[in-house]
Specification:
419 residues; 76% helix; two-stranded antiparallel sheet; mainly alpha; single chain; 1% strand
Length: 419
């Protein structure tokens, strides 16, 4: 295990995954209310794109046990490019709402497979001492890709005469990312003497066994909490919400796209190194607390365009910290075997609060306005930290046990390091 390539290669490989998310959560979310959709329908577009990420661990064994990770990456990359083009080309209006949702859902499924391939290569080629650093660069690509798909996508939608042209440009950029695939050794399909259907059935029993162990249970519980979800970003991107601060499409393009993506990438890298210093689970909870402070501050500061820009920049930086700590938590737990399946058990748990918080915050914004929405996110973040602290006390070890160094998950039981 281990490879000498700089982890920036994972930044490039995972960028299309982020771009698929960003185009929906930023570009389409902003355009939704301008095209006759409601704030709630804009949130539904984001939620339907998130839904496959909640359940993706059920089909992750297919990629572990069939084609090599390189082949799966290239197949899914093409499907992501085609899906993004179709998402842009179909007119966004109430009469096409269900069709757009279906395309977004299918493209998101393809993006999960792309993520499986990258995560398996990352788990296979990363030494334990490098997990924090690699996690930061990996999530830099995820959130940087979100900035490209969101910011560049929104700018192109507002500048080009045809949305289809936007789709073509984004699709071409995604395909370009495939050029770095040869820089990493391939990871072949795993033969474990069981069918893919058997492997899928085995997922549930693995999760149950993991949940009975303190280290695995704490990691899984932490991923499920509404900490550091970044869900408010999708609501803040909508035109009617941004207008509360006097912000227009230029401000949204800047902070939700180009600048926000860059700041998120920096946050990921900083967060990854922070995990190496204080431990992945402690960092996860601490970064979630910082995010709660940022949203509270944004709620109470004057509603001006500069506060919108500054608040979003701070939010995206902390979001980068949170995403890096999530990957570090998972890499500490999964080892190298069936990596896509095991990584995405945790990823599905982590995407669940992103999914439900996106819908919840949109509903709160409709009833209480942007300030109420931001304060709601802060409140849920604080509750999440308190819940984790309580769980850590309940699952306190009976005797001091030296932290595991190999990050192995034997028989589906996570062995992690550090709280």
């Amino acid at each position: 295990m281990g490879h000498s390539r700089h982890p920036v290669v994972y930044t490039v490989l995972i960028a299309p995954f982020g771009a698929v998310t960003g185009f929906v959560s930023v570009a389409l979310a902003f355009m939704a209310t301008k095209k006759g959709l409601t704030v709630g329908q804009g949130a539904e577009l984001i939620a339907i794109g998130m839904l496959p990420n909640v359940w993706k661990f059920f089909w992750a064994p297919v990629t572990d046990m069939t084609l090599s990770r390189r082949k799966w990456y290239l197949i899914s990359l093409v499907l992501c490019a085609v899906g993004t083009f179709a998402t842009a080309a179909v007119p966004l209006r109430p009469s096409n709402f269900l069709l757009v949702q279906a395309i977004i859902f299918a493209t998101s499924v393809a993006a999960t497979v792309l993520g499986f391939a990258v995560e398996a290569m990352m788990a296979k080629h990363t030494l334990p001492a490098d997990r924090g650093r690699v996690s930061g660069w990996y999530q830099a690509g995820n959130l940087g890709g979100t900035g490209i798909g969101g910011g560049l996508g929104l700018w192109l939608l507002t500048q080009l005469p045809s949305p289809a042209q936007t789709g073509l440009i984004l699709a071409a950029l995604m395909l370009f990312c495939g050029a770095v695939v040869p820089l990493l050794p391939d990871v072949p399909a795993e033969d474990r003497g069981e069918s893919v259907a058997g492997a899928v059935r085995n997922v549930a029993s693995q999760v149950w066994r993991m949940g009975r162990m303190r280290e695995g249970a704490l990691s899984a519980f932490l991923c499920f909490l509404p900490l550091g979800t970044g869900a408010a970003a999708g609501v803040l991107a909508q035109a009617d919400v941004a207008a509360h601060w006097g912000a227009d499409s230029r401000h949204v393009e800047l902070v939700q796209g180009f600048l926000g993506g860059l700041v998120s990438m920096v946050g990921c890298i900083v967060g990854g190194y922070g995990c190496s210093r204080i431990g992945s689970r402690v960092a996860y909870a601490a970064y979630g607390g910082i995010m709660a402070a940022v949203t509270a501050a944004m709620a109470f500061l004057p509603a001006t365009p500069s506060i919108y820009v500054g608040g979003n920049i701070a939010y995206f930086f902390v979001n980068g910290l949170c995403y890096a700590s999530f990957s570090a938590v998972v890499l500490d737990a999964i080892g190298t075997g069936l990596a896509a399946t095991k990584y995405n058990v945790f990823a599905s748990l982590s995407n669940t609060p992103i999914w439900y918080m996106g819908l919840l915050l949109a509903a709160v914004e409709t009833r209480l306005g942007p300030k109420g929405m931001l304060l709601a996110e802060s409140a849920f973040g604080i509750l999440g930290i308190l819940a984790f602290m309580a769980a850590a006390q309940v699952w306190r070890p009976k005797a001091a046990v030296p932290p595991a160094t190999n990050g192995a998950w034997e028989g589906g039981v996570a062995q992690t390091s550090g709280d």
